[in-house]
Amino acid sequence: MNLQELQEEFISAISAVYETTEAWNIWNLIVHHIHDNEKKGITIAGGSPQKYLEAIKRRLLQQEPVQYILQEAWFYDCPFYVDKNVLIPRPETEELVHWVIKEHQHRKELKILDIGTGSGCIPCILKRKLPQAAVFSCDISKAAIEVARRNAAACQLAIAFFELDFLNPENWKLLPKVDVIVSNPPYIPGKDRGFMHPNVLDYEPSLALFVPDNDPLLFYKKIAEASGSLLQPNGAVYVETHEELAVASAEVFEQGAFTTVIRQDLQGKNRFVKASN
Length: 277
What we know:
Strand content: 15-25%
CATH topology of the largest domain: Rossmann fold
CATH superfamily of the largest domain: Vaccinia Virus protein VP39
CATH class of the largest domain: Alpha Beta
Oligomer: single chain
Helix content: 40-55%
Strand order of the largest sheet: 5-4-3-6-9-11-10
Structural class: alpha/beta
């Protein structure tokens, strides 16, 4: 079977689960991944493209995300190692990171704290694009911290990681005072589970996705509270939010005497909040 035939058979098979456009995107990711490995002298499993694609196809038909299958996700034009211990980076979060970079790229000295490390995509890109910054990041998950450290090492970036429960105020004293706090915290109310796709619900870590229905602003409240001791004067907090909770999230910071700005994502949804002290 030649490449054209493999492609047609693969797209046809996974189109039973994925829309045609997404099926093509998945195919392109796989081909790109294979070519990248070949450049590094890495031969795909078994050396047989047909067997390799067949194995991937079986997992895709179970709605396992292709990023977990390849153990690679692209973020801000950089490849990151990912596994089921961390969320797959989203395009919206690139917009959050870009906002921080754009507003602080000309500063000579800068300290940044990322809350909720995950794969490490946020702190890694911030350190890469703002090399003058000292970057810190914390997460409750030991497994996530290990993934983030792996990505930072692969990119040769010096980032300080802290394994701690940020929701416990006792742990805030372990963190440094900073000029910028950035976070893409869990923000999906549990009641939204019924509207979500199996590829998210069945594979991505619930701890990084969901918040209690009775306290959906939990993380924003804690970030606002912690900012009182962690944020330097004239500092700023940048957070990603649920589109239906952006205004309420901004109000949480305003109650703490912050000035806020709500920004929409490229889909026109209220997605980000900046809070300045």
